[in-house]
Design goal:
This protein is of the alpha/beta class and 246 residues long.
Length: 246
């Protein structure tokens, strides 16, 4: 945890934390009374707090300030639901990477039982998302949307998502492709398919809706591997300026 996140309802003077956050402060950070800790409010500002007391079971803090602006989310993700084990690994990493909206989509290669998995229950995934936010020092909790019917999603929801995005990218194994010109004013939209990629019909639907091909190469990747590789690559390309040749 690089930032201890608080629910706004927890704010008090002083405030007491229990459970994993208290244990982390005591045993991992090894903080002692008088130390300053980074804190933040879920979907709110960030700041710092003074540790007043600490045991493995509880930590008492006094908020010093909430004046900092945490890193904002920068991308929206459309993801064909992967295997539950892979999705469990992905939840915290998607929050760490700064995904703003996570649209979980049915597709031809998605097992219908995946949508019944407990890993898609908010009681399961929200704590995992919060863990990812605390790792990255951010506070904005990704919004999660479920789309269980592919044709209805393509007809009714996808056009609005594309219209709101300056850059809609379709990930699929194939020749490596450069990014088209775009405006950085609003987050791009990245669509990642199931293991092995989208079917030809699905691929055609996305291209017809205005998506641009975005590929790291011809090797098919597992969905969780593809997510991390594509997000990391896109973040680098969009945020790091290439030095001008001398």
């Amino acid at each position: 945890m690089n930032r201890i996140l608080l629910d706004p309802a927890e704010l008090a003077d002083p405030l007491t934390l229990t459970g994993p956050r208290a244990l982390h402060i005591h045993t991992i950070l090894k903080s002692t009374p008088g130390d300053t800790l980074k804190i933040g409010l879920i979907n709110g500002p960030a700041g710092s707090a003074e540790l007043l007391a600490s045991t493995p079971d509880s930590a008492t803090l006094r908020v010093l300030n909430l004046d900092d602006t945490p890193p904002p989310p920068w991308i929206d993700l459309l993801l064909a639901v992967p295997r539950p084990r892979a999705m469990k690994r992905l939840w915290p990493q998607l929050a760490t990477f700064g995904v703003r909206n996570i649209h979980l989509l049915n597709s031809a290669k998605v097992e219908k039982t995946y949508f019944a998995s407990h890993i898609l229950n908010p009681d399961t995934y929200v704590p995992l998302l919060i863990d990812g936010l605390m790792q990255s020092g951010a506070t904005a909790l990704p919004a999660v949307h479920f789309h269980t019917h592919f044709p209805a999603f393509i007809a009714n929801t996808l056009p609005g998502l594309v219209a709101a995005s300056p850059l809609a990218l379709l990930a699929h194994p194939g020749p490596a492709t450069p990014l088209p010109s775009h405006s950085p004013a609003t987050p791009p939209l990245l669509a990642i398919g199931p293991d092995g990629g989208w079917t030809p019909d699905e691929h055609a639907h996305f291209l017809a809706a205005g998506f641009h091909p975005f590929s790291l190469g011809a090797r098919p990747l597992r969905t969780d591997t593809a997510c991390i590789a594509l997000l990391a690559t896109l973040h680098y390309v969009l945020n790091v300026e290439t030095p001008s040749p001398k």
